Amino acid sequence: MPASLLVELRTEELPPKSLKRLSEALAQSVFEGLTGLGFLAAESAARPFATPRRLAVLITRVLDKQPDRMTERKGPSVSAGLDAGGQPTQALAGFARSCGVEVAKLARAQGDKGEHFVYRFKHKGEPLKNHLAGVVEAALKKLPVAKLMRWGAGEAQFVRPVHGVILLHGAKVVPGAVLGLKSGSKTLGHRFMSRGPIVIAHADKYADILRKSGKVVASFEERRAAIAKQLRQSAVRQRAHVFPPHDWTGAGKTGDAEMAERVLTAGPILGANEELLDEVTALVEWPAVYAGEFEREFLDVPAQCIGLTMQKNQRYFALMSEHAELLPNYLLVSNLETRNPANIVRGNARVLRARLADAKFFFEQDRKTKLADRTPHLANVVYHNKLGSQLERVQRIQKLAVQIGQRLGADERLVERAAYLCKADLLTDMVGEFPELQGLMGYYYALHDGEPDAVAKAIARHYQPRHAGDTLPNAPIDQALALADRLDTLVGIYGIGLQPTGDKDPFGLRRAALGVARILVERGLALDAMELLQFARGQFPDGVVAEGVAQDLYGFILDRLRPYLRERGFKPDEIEAVLAVYQGEQGDRLFSTVIPRLTAIQAFRRLPEWKALSEANKRIRNILRQARQNGIEPASDANPDLYTETAEKALGDAVLHMQQEVPVLCGQKGQYAEGLRRLADLASSLDLFFRDVMVMVDDQAIRGNRLALLNQIRHLFLWIADVSELQG
């Protein structure tokens, strides 16, 4: 009879950051294993459970015995199994013996390669106990575990020692052994709030029994929701935010610029609280949220430092006021519920006070040495053994940033200064403790040193975007430094042969390439990416990086651009139509115009003529390609005096008119959609031309002139995109 099946592994403390993933993978693998063996019904479902000391899965409607099934074994073909007299051959007789039956018991079946002999027999279903332990063992081997460990005197291996196994079908224990442990129906509850073994009377009651008798919330999702609810309730009582709000109610009470700056600081801190929620959920079985506080003197340290100290070192949740200011309060999630949590709160406060004192000490000590005095010491820090020191890298970034800044109209003096200081904070104690703060601490220390505000901001913002969806640098000086930093990384690391492979990208080159693309695209910077790559390559000594690295990286950046554009809602053929243009002559405007061009293509596709024009462009492209393959080049320009056909003259007149309009609309005004709309007027003329005019005639002058006319049409469309790439 179908019944729910419970599988539980009781372990020592599991890695918190991978707990959820492990439980989901275990549930899926056990479910798939039982499905393959025929033990599950169509409506069966799996529910994973995970706590710091257990992984479990509950699967509904599991059969205690496989259904009987007919099995068919294929034998030789009829032509190979029977001789000319219709008697069994040795091949057929041998097949029958291997099946343990007479030849007469074999049947015939029609297959893809003709008729053949088969042996059909009923395979009797086996009980669940014969397979369950093996299914669980196989599932454990498939778990995404980087390192396994052994324990005791046995040979069993798992991510952490396993001390108990439950295999329970309904109310019955399924006999078997997993990792050398015999199955049973007993587990343990909370380490401190529960006493002795707990018997799971029925698989369906697993979560309820653990909750009531063991003080354990077995479901990861339920536990996470309970923690989030308690955190929000406690934050509300303190008139604070623990997670990013939809809006900040204090925004209208202070200056907009000042508030916006604080929100930029508060957002990532509260966002880190959301990320911390999963980790804390994996650390507790019976969560209880308590509020703590620290001395206000520590608020002199930048909020990001305090937030990281609490979140990373202590797993505490930082709190922000309605005005996006860090509060001297925090929330902690304990694994112990008590009516009087004073001792818990005091103990945690004592530990946090020591951590914050360290942060304050680092901050004060770091400010005693100016960033400008630290930069020369970067000569003692190796960037890469093939690429020199961090100081050499800073010098390369300086030159490249100045070149970019000149093109963007940034103050050259400020760009050069920001580039000189941008990596100095790598030598500070605070960044040594929290590498995530590089750039940000440079901002605070630059302000303390009396550097211009624009220089300090550029130091912080040149790391943007740090991740997908992150804020982009906005000021020209910030953009110049951000691009220079990434381009130097790309050219240097890629150029010495350390390209990403598969899912491995230890130097973050894909992220750097996408960052370059996003800055150029979203900020509309009309910079020639190839030119900048070549300039960056020129900053390295001869022979250090590959000669063709600039060309390779240009393609690498385009490869990152494609999925980014697909995520923004553009179709693959639209993207290829636009990018095809930039294999040619307009590379300096690739990234700054890619979105307007794609938007124009989307509008073009709503016109009734788009398919006809796309097909006509395919035809033009093929005619020109075949002509060149045969050594025939079009004339430099179409000569109206050589037009001989009416359709040819009409198309020539239309093209001449377009040549006056399209370059102005697209090249000067950036009105790509309007350019394509005007070009759509060529549809009827092109249709008549291809119907009435032969292009590849014997007369060399006329043939070259007609090829020139088609070439002009193709180049008119290439002001926007190669519409021949569009698929119907």
Description:
Helices cover 48% and strands 13% of the residues. With 728 residues, it is α+β, with helices and mostly antiparallel strands. It folds into five domains: 152 residues; 55 residues, no CATH class; 147 residues, no CATH class; 155 residues, no CATH class; 128 residues, Isoleucyl-tRNA Synthetase, Domain 1 (Orthogonal Bundle). The strands form six sheets. Strands 1, 2, 3, 9, 10, 11 and 12 form a seven-stranded mixed β-sheet that branches. A three-stranded antiparallel β-sheet has the order 4-6-5. The model has no long low-confidence stretch (mean pLDDT 92).
Give the distance, in angstroms, between the N- and C-terminal Cα atoms. Answer: 55 Å
Low-confidence stretches: none
Radius of gyration: 35 Å
Task: Supply the number of helical segments.
Answer: 26
Helix fraction? Answer: 40-55%
Largest sheet: 7 strands, mixed
Count of individual beta strands: 19
How many domains make up the coordinates? 5
State mean pLDDT (0 to 100 scale).
92
Structural class: alpha+beta
Strand content: 5-15%
Overall form: flat
